[in-house]
Amino acid sequence: MSAGWSVAILGATGAVGRTMLETLADSPIAVRELRLLATPRGAGRTMTFRGNEISVTAVTPESFAGVELALFSAGAAASETWAPIAVRAGAWVIDNSSRFRMDPEVALIVPEVNPHRIPDEPAIIANPNCSTIQMVVALAPLHARFGLAEVFVATYQSASGAGGKGLQALETELAGGAVEPGSYRFPRRLAGNVIPQCDVFLSDGYTREEEKMVHETQKILDLPELPVHPTCVRVPVPVAHSEAIYLRLGSAVNLESARIALQAAPGVRLLDDPGAGEYPTADLAAGTDPVWVGRLRADRYDPRGLHLWVVSDNLRKGAALNAVQIACLLWDRRSADLTRSLP
Amino acid sequence: MSAGWSVAILGATGAVGRTMLETLADSPIAVRELRLLATPRGAGRTMTFRGNEISVTAVTPESFAGVELALFSAGAAASETWAPIAVRAGAWVIDNSSRFRMDPEVALIVPEVNPHRIPDEPAIIANPNCSTIQMVVALAPLHARFGLAEVFVATYQSASGAGGKGLQALETELAGGAVEPGSYRFPRRLAGNVIPQCDVFLSDGYTREEEKMVHETQKILDLPELPVHPTCVRVPVPVAHSEAIYLRLGSAVNLESARIALQAAPGVRLLDDPGAGEYPTADLAAGTDPVWVGRLRADRYDPRGLHLWVVSDNLRKGAALNAVQIACLLWDRRSADLTRSLP
C-alpha cells in the first residue's frame, strides 16, 4: 500500500477551495497525489500545495479514478453531478455544498459533535452550513450538560459567506467603486449597511439560510423536534460570522458549570471576561481555527435561559477546516485499520 | 401672550442636538426665541435655524429664564445639573440622556405609545434610548392586538449611536486612518467588524444598553414584568439601527392581522414583500422619520411566535425626532388650552 492518499479537490479556486488547500496542507494527512479540479471555466490556473505547483484541470468522469478522498466546494449543481461518480470510483466525498445535507441517507458531520455518524464505507459526507457549524460546536457541550429546549439566534454573517465573489463585492463597495454589471452583488449595498437576507426567500418568509440553520442543527444534534428560531443577516465584515444566541435549556443554568462545559469542549475557545474587555469579535476569529464563545450571561427572567456570543472563521471552521477535520477522522481510521492489520 | 415659545437646546452641537435643530425647524412649533446652549467647550459656534444664524452660548443658571421648552442632549451629567434648574424656571425639559428615564417620578415617553403619561405641569420628560424607541413603536400595536408575553431582540446598532464622535471614529477607520489618541474610539476596531458591546458592562454580564432595553421597554409599555432578552451589538453602519426581534405573543399569531395592525399603527412603515426584495435596511431608513418594519414571519414551531425586522434612524426617531414629537404634543395641548380659553 502506498504511503499516502490520492486526493481531489473540486472547486479548488474558490474562497473555500483555497482554504481547503491550506488546511489540508497543515493536516497530518499524507497526500500521494493531489488533483485540483474545477469546472472548465476555472481550469488552467496553478496553485501551490506543500511546496509543489499543481495545475487546475477541468473535471471529467476519469478525474476520480484511484482517488481515496475528494473534497467538494463547487456548488450544489456540481456536487449533484460529480459526487455519485466519485463515490462509485471508490472515493470518500466530503461535500461542502447544501445538495446532500438533508438527504436522510447522507451523514451531516461536525467532528466535535457527531463523528459516530460517519459511515463505514466510502460515501458522500455532507459538510454543514457555516452558520450552523459554529453554533452546534458551542451548543453540543451545553446540550450534554443541561439539555437543550429551544434556540434563538440572530447572525452577523460576513461577506465571504457568499464566497470569494462576495468578498470582492464588499471590497469594491468599500473602495468607493461600483460593482460592475454582471459581477456578483448582494441584494443591497453591503458597505455601511446590514442586509436581513442570506440566500433566497422561501414561501413562508424564511430565507433558505434560516431554514438550513433549523434543519441542519436538528439533524447534527439528533434533536429532530428542537425549535430553532433564526434570523440570518449579512454584515459588512470580510471574514468570520458572529452569532447572538439565546438558549432555553432543559434545566436551570449554572453559569459556572456552563463555563466549565465550554472550556472542556473540543473546538471551543472560551474568551469571556467582558469586564476586562475580553470577548470574541470577527477580526479576532478570522484566520483562526476555534469556535470562539463569549458573553455568557444567565438570563434575568428565566433560570433556564442562557445568552452567548459565538464567532468563528466561516471559511475555516465554517467550511474548509470542518471538511478537512472530517477527512482527518477518515485518515485516523485508516491508520487504525492498518495497525489492526499488522501481524 | 406671545406668538411662540422661547426654546432652549442644550447640547446643540452634538449629532443629536444638530438633528433636534433640524426636526424642530420642520415642526409646527412657533419659536419666538431659540437659545442654543452648550458646555463652555462647545460655545462660540454659530448654527442656522429657520434661516437665522444663532450663536451657541455657554449654559448658565440664567439661560432658562422665560424658556417654555428645553431640549437636552448633552449627557447624563449635564442633565442632572441643568434639568431641575430649567424646570424651576418654568420650562418643560425633554431630556435625551439616560439620567431620569428610570426615575419613577419621571415620564418616559414615546408619543405613539404612551402620550397619556405626559404630566399636566412643566416637568422633566425623559426621551428613551434609541434602540428602545424603535422597538416599542413596533411592539405596541402587536401588544394591543395579541398581547405580549416575551421579547427576544438582537440589535445591529450604528456608529452614530455613540454620537458624532462615534460616527467620526468609524469614518476615520474606513478611510484607513488611525483614530488619534485622545479621540473617541469603540472598544474594538469597528470597520470590518461587529462588536457585542454598546455602553459598559454590568456585574451580571449585561451591558448597560441591554439593561436599558429591558427596563425602558417595560416602563413605556407599562408591562413591568415583561421578559425582554436583548443582545446589543455595534455594526459598521453610519446611521440607523436594525433589530432582529422574535416575539412570543399572548395568543396565536395571525400574520394577516399582524400586518393590518402594523399598517394602521402610528409611526410605523411596513415594507414587507421579501419575494420582491422589499424589506427595510439601514441605508433606506437613514434620514427618514418612520420606524420601518419588515420580514414578518410566523414561527414554524410556536403558533404564538412572530419574527420581525425593525429599522429606524437612531438620530431622528431614536432621539431628536421623538423629543420634538413630545414637544409637539405639548404645543398642541397649549393650542387646545388657548382655544378653550377663548370667550
Q: Can you walk through the features of this model?
A:
Two copies of one chain form a homodimer. Chain A is an alpha/beta fold and 343 residues long. Helix content of chain A is 31%, strand content 23%. Chains A and B meet through strand 9, strand 11, strand 13 and strand 14 of A and strand 9, strand 11, strand 13 and strand 14 of B.
Features:
alpha/beta; 343 residues; 6-stranded mixed sheet; homodimer; 8 helices
Number of helices of chain A: 8
Main sheet attributes: strand count, strand direction, barrel closure of chain A: 8 strands, mixed
Q: Determine Rg of chain A (CA atoms, Å).
A: 20 Å
User: What percentage of amino acids of chain A are in beta strands?
Assistant: 15-25%
Low-confidence stretches of chain A: none
How does the overall form of chain A come out from the CA principal axes?
globular
Helix/strand order of chain A, N-terminal first: EHEEEEHEEEHEHHEEHEHEEH
Strand order of the largest sheet of chain A: 3-4-2-1-5-6-8-7
Oligomerization status of the protein chains: homodimer
How far apart are the first and last residues' alpha carbons of chain A, in Å? 15 Å
* Mean model confidence by pLDDT of chain A: 95
Family (chains A, B): Belongs to the aspartate-semialdehyde dehydrogenase family.
Protein name (chains A, B): Aspartate-semialdehyde dehydrogenase
Active site (chains A, B): 130 (acyl-thioester intermediate), 241 (proton acceptor)
InterPro entries (chains A, B): Asp_semialdehyde_DH, Asp_semialdehyde_DH_beta, NAD(P)-bd_dom_sf, Semialdehyde_DH_NAD-bd, Semialdhyde_DH_dimer_dom
